[in-house]
């Protein structure tokens, strides 16, 4: 039997207040690897916050929800060094997977979700955009 | 001798319809980690979310392939993690009574269920479309 499925995952918006909470959680984290990854991802989100809304047209997301809006080339270049490669995202995901359920784990994966969206060179499709 | 066993299209359609009819009003569970060795094993890994098939989950099969009707998204994901596997359940089935399972991930992972972002965030939305199940010709 063969199967084919296309899915999407959409995270809540990452507000400035939430990002401040995540900074505190990262600083309090005893796992230096997780702490370091989260700090890098927080810097990435802060850098992305300076990105103006893309003027590129959107296309339908394959999951049937939301639209994919590609980032403009100049913005991709500007945030390039702060955005991890997909392979690096997978390494972070493995590190975060040891975290128990709770605020720290939710924060880590929220940041990682943003990284995966930006690694796809598109505006993060948060739930408020669906 | 090489196998030359083949299934007629009408039989493939019938088998496929029988499979997917079991999923009417059923669910799709998305979990963290690798799938258990057998479908009848207890689920492992945190449950990220559950999506629901319609009362008629799939349309009639054609050339051995059935396409799902609209699937209700999970609008409030249960937990945070990277999607690793899924299970398909008939309506009201218990944990070890799934009909099938497969891997989930991004295209680079070559999974059975492809997400374009496999990280799920608690409280977020999980959506699935373009779902097909096929009974091959041989």
Terminal residue distance of chain B: 15 Å
Give the tally of β-strands of chain A: 3
- What's the helix-strand series of chain A? EHHEEHHH
Q: Structural class, from helix and strand content of chain B? A: mainly beta
Q: How would you describe what is shown here?
A:
The complex is a heterodimer of chains A (about 130) and B (about 140). By secondary structure, chain A is mostly helical. Chain A has one domain (about 15-50, about 70-130). Helices cover about 50% and strands about 10% of the residues of chain A. In chain A, strands 2-3 form a two-stranded antiparallel ribbon. Chain A is globular, with a radius of gyration of 15 Å. Chain A starts with a strand and ends in an 11-residue tail after the last helix. Chain B has about 140 residues and is mostly beta strands. Helices cover about 10% and strands about 35% of the residues of chain B. Chain B has one helix spanning about 10-20; strands spanning about 25-30, 45-50, 65, 80-90, 100-105, 115, 120, 125-135. In chain B, the strands form two sheets. In chain B, strands 1, 2, 4, 5, 6 and 7 form a six-stranded mixed beta sheet that branches. Chain B has a two-stranded antiparallel sheet with strand order 3-8. The two termini of chain B are about 15 Å apart. Classes of the chains: A mainly alpha (about 130), B mainly beta (about 140). Strand 1 of chain A pairs antiparallel with strand 8 of chain B.
């Amino acid at each position: 039997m063969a199967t084919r499925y296309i899915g999407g995952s959409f995270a809540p918006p990452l507000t400035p207040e939430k990002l401040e909470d995540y900074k505190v959680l990262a600083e309090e984290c005893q796992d230096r690897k997780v702490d370091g990854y989260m700090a890098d991802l927080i810097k990435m989100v802060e850098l992305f916050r300076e990105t103006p809304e893309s003027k590129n047209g959107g296309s339908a997301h394959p999951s049937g929800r939301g639209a994919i809006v590609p980032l403009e080339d100049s913005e991709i270049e500007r945030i390039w060094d702060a955005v991890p490669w997909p392979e690096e995202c997978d390494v972070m995901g493995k590190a975060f997977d040891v975290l128990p359920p709770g605020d720290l784990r939710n924060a880590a994966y929220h940041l990682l979700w943003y990284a995966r969206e930006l690694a796809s060179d598109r505006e993060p499709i948060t739930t408020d955009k669906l | 001798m090489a196998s030359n066993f083949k299934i007629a299209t009408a039989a493939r359609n019938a088998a496929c319809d029988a499979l997917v009819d079991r999923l009417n009003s059923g669910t799709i569970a998305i979990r963290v980690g690798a799938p258990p060795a057998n479908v009848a094993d207890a689920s492992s890994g945190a449950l990220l979310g559950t999506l629901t098939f319609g009362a008629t989950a799939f349309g009639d099969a054609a050339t051995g392939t059935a396409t799902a009707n609209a699937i209700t998204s999970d609008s409030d994901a249960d937990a945070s993690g990277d999607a690793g596997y899924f299970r398909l359940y008939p309506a009201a089935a218990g944990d070890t009574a799934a009909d099938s399972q497969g891997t989930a991930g991004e295209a680079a992972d070559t999974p059975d269920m492809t997400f374009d972002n496999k990280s799920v965030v608690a409280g977020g939305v999980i959506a699935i479309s373009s779902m097909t199940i096929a009974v091959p010709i041989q």
